[in-house]
Amino acid sequence: MDTTRLANFLKARIRTVPDWPIAGVNFRDVTTLFNDPEAFRVMIEAFSLDCTQLGVDVIAAIDARGFIIGGALSYQLHKPFVLVRKKGKLPYTTHTEDYALEYGTASIQINTDACAPGQRVLLVDDLIATGGTLLAAAKLFAKVEAEVVGVAAIIDLPELGGSAKLREAGLPVHSLCSFSESE
């Protein structure tokens, strides 16, 4: 499926919830894609092609919807799967990275043995908004001397500037579709 057809196919199946979690925000609900076997298969196949081209060694996914995509992708490609969790959710020794939110700060963590130095990591999440979480995740993998070779997301919200920040940081970005706030 070409990229335009793929984007249109997925966008037609993503639910938009207006005014959630606050007035004026259009929430893009990807759970509808997880409930549609054909859409889910098409997403994983599209991401699999990218992973093969990038020479990925490890799939790393962001808490929580990223886990669904990352787990399926890891299974499909027979690659190790690393969880990037919210602070305090991993019981082993961890590396922590703080990042800014609109309303404060948050922290994410990976296990100190999440992957080996030099391994090529693909970061996976459901969507790219401001890019803060994904940039923080990339810093976590730098702490274990791994190489983040790309970022994959179902949705890009380019008006929020996250994908531009990721590219400025030298991270290739692959999203399957994008939404403007007016859509």
UniProtKB/TrEMBL annotation:
Reaction(s) the record says it catalyses: AMP + diphosphate = 5-phospho-alpha-D-ribose 1-diphosphate + adenine
GO biological process, one term: adenine salvage
One GO molecular-function entry: AMP binding
Record's subunit section: Homodimer.
Sequence ranges assigned to domain Phosphoribosyltransferase in this UniProt record: 54-158
Keywords, alphabetical: Cytoplasm, Glycosyltransferase, Purine salvage, Transferase
Listed name of the protein: Adenine phosphoribosyltransferase
Native source species: Synoicihabitans lomoniglobus
Chain's role: Catalyzes a salvage reaction resulting in the formation of AMP, that is energically less costly than de novo synthesis.
A Gene Ontology term for the protein's cellular component: cytoplasm
Pathway(s) per entry: Purine metabolism; AMP biosynthesis via salvage pathway; AMP from adenine: step 1/1
Pfam families in UniProt: Pribosyltran
Ranges annotated as spanning the membrane: none
